[in-house]
Design goal:
The protein is 29% helix and 19% strand. It has helices at residues 22-31, 50-64, 90-98, 103-116, 118-122, 146-160, 167-182, 213-221, 223-227, 254-260, 302-320, 328-331, 333-342, and strands at residues 13-15, 33-34, 46-49, 65-67, 70-74, 81-85, 137-139, 192-195, 203-209, 248-251, 268-276, 280-284, 352-356, 365-369, 375-376, 387-393, 404-409, 444-457. Residues 223-380 form the RES domain.
Amino acid sequence: MGDIGEDGDTDNRVCHACIGDSQLNSEIRRYGRPAPCAYCGNTRLRTVSIPQLARRIDPVYRMMVGFGEQEPDFDPDSDNVHWIIRGDTPSQLIGDMIECADTTIAEDIVEQLGSDHSYSIGMGEDQDWYDESSDVFVVETPDDPEFRMAWESFCHSVKHERRFFGDGAIALLDKILGPILEGRQRLFRGVVRSIGPEDEERFIYRGRLANDEAARKRIYAAPIAELSAPPAAYATAGRMNSAGISVFYGSADVETAVAELRVPVGGIAVVGRFEITRPLRLLDLTKLEVINNDLSFFHPDYFTMHSYASFLRGFHQEIRKPIIPGRETLEYLPTQVVAEYLWTRGERSVDGLIFGSSQVSGDRTNIVLFPQASGVENADAEVRREVAGIYHFGGSDDEPPDVAETVYLHPAPAPQAPAKEDLTGLGDAWFEPVEAIPQPVAQHSLRLDISSLTKAAVQAIRYSVTEVPVELQDEREMPF
């Protein structure tokens, strides 16, 4: 509002508390003056006149407004089809845009703008976008494909041209993810967040397929090591890691953890609950799904930010999308590069990602912790114990599935003293045995709660399908 001067109107004014849109609210606070609000009655807040507010809204509204699409409307009595345009009235659209507390505010703005443009409308020089008798108007948001095209080009390059982390990939990912990692825009704050030992979301569930008793015994014998991320030498390629790089994949609940393992009906997984033990900086991609809800139509960079926010929602879908078995090697390449970028950005790097599950509908989430944050307490020091026996409660033909399982373990074997290296022949008087220099390890970030172990037996799987009719016709009916 800075370029719109005060017009002296003192009778019909609106305060910032009656306008929910963040941009307009901020501008009224900054450029308005204390005066009685005609809508809520407050006499102490900053206000602007309706003509002043209307002039601020007018160019933005006219840039965004359009006509709704025609849709068929069936008459059940005559079976006739009428084509109608579905939309809203100008006051409904403006009310939604400015998030006004009283619908009268939007109606007064429309009346003011209709009066302002009455001459040009009457002369046929302008479309009447403020006709309150018509409910045919919609907000049309243009889509700038710049970010989407850049991402598609990046994916094609990584898959089919060059598969190393070059300067071009870094520059593109800086453009795509830099604004989020830096958090300079208020809109993106909260997408990168910290989760630590005091937070409710500190628990992560991770499981392993264990369809037979031998597999379960192997897990029960050393649950920390078996349920932790694998050693780098055994790490296979995944959505967020290439082969030889160990990361920790987990989920926010047991059901999602089992679904991500793709356990078949009748199959079993052993799941444990891990607890985050130190603050971790995480990029929460699920926050991108609602990022446009906080974006003001009146922000000076609205179109650029809207296009970017729309791309980010699609980016989350790209990260989480299911991959058809057999195509993982190729399809995982772009997300593997993104993950490596995220954990190598120095001060801007993150410890992991939170993203939506593609295996379970709703708002179920997964988490991946990158190498520097994937360590689990006592995973390396755990002593494997032999299973003496497993006892089940329930589960016979006449009873429901197991309600409990008790595992008995033999005592842990006594630790063996490390054997000293035999240096005979090198001169015992000159040399003493030297211990190997320990290799650096990732800082421990997780702790497994041994009492949380669960044997999850899959009883049923629910599918969500899209049905596409298929019609078989003679070749002569082909349209081309």
